[in-house]
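help with this.
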Amino acid sequence: MQAKLSAAKEWIAGFVNKRILVIGDLMLDEFVWGKVSRISPEAPVPVVDVAGESYYPGGAANVARNVREFTSGAAVMGIAGTDAAGLRLLGLLGEAGIDTAAVQRDQASFTTVKTRIVARHQQVVRVDRERKGSLSAEQTERAMRLLDQAMGGADAIIVADYGKGYLTQPLADYICRAAGERGKILSVDPHPHTSLRWRNAAAIKPNRAEAFLAAGLRPSDPVEPALCDRPLIEAGAALFGIWGTRNILITLGEQGMLLLDPAAPPYHTPASAKEVFDVSGAGDTAIAVFTLGLAAGASPAEAAELANCASGIVVGKLGTATATAAELQAACAGL
C-alpha cells in the first residue's frame, strides 16, 4: 500500500470509541430474491419466481448502518414518514442500535423505497417509489434544533445527500457553521443535482461523474494510471473553488480512489476488490470508513486507504452490504 497502514489495527480498534452523526435522506432498501426460468408470454421480459424478501436501511440510513458496524455511537438525522415503509425503516434502525432521536416523524412525508429484484445474483430491475419535496421552514427550524442537540457528543458528522429534498442550502449552511464553531469533522457525500455549497468541510466525496458535473465540465474517459488523468484532476481543482473544502476524495470504481488536497500532490489508491458482485452501497461504506479514519487520527491518505479496503469488501457481497471491523482488519493485514 502507498500510505503506511502499520497503525490500521489501532485505528480500526479506535473506531469503537467514536460517535458519528449521519445527516441526510433516509430511505428503505427492499430486495426481492428469486429465480428466472422462463420469459413472459406477455412481453419479452423474464418472469421472476420470488423466493424471499429482505429489507435494509437505505440512503443516509445505510451510511449510519455502515458506521454502526464499527461503533455503538452511530446516530442518524433526517425525516421519515409515518407510512408502513417509514415505520419499517425506523424499526430496522432501532434493531441495529442506531440512535434515531434526531429523526423527524412526519405524517405528510412519503418514505422513499428502492426495490431491487434479484435473480441468480443478477439485478433484474430496480423500482423506485418516492415523492421528492424540500423541507418546509418549520421543518428546517426543527432540524436545526435537533442538530444542536445531536452534535454535542459527536466526533464527526457525515452528510449524505441523495437529492430527495431533506438537505437545503439553509440547512447546509447551518450544518457547516455549527460544525466549524464546535470543531467537528465534517465530511459530505454530495448529490450532483442539488448544487449545495459545503464550506469548510474536511472532505467531500463525489464519484467521477459527479465531480465533472459539479465542476461544470464535460466528462472524459478514464485514463490509466489515474494520476495521469489531467481532466479529472482539473475538475477536482475547480471543485475546491466551488465547495471550499479541505480535501476531495473521488471514487473511481474499478480504478479505486483519488484524493486531492490543494497543498499536496494527488494521491491514488487502487481498487482492492477481487470479485465484484454488487456495487449497491459501496459509496456509503467509503464515506463511513473514511470519516471514521479521520476521527481516529488517520491522515486523509491513510483514511482513504481504509475506505478503499472497506469498499472492496462490500462490492464482493450481494445486496446493500456492510464491512465489519474484523473483515477490515483482515483486508488491511493482507495488503
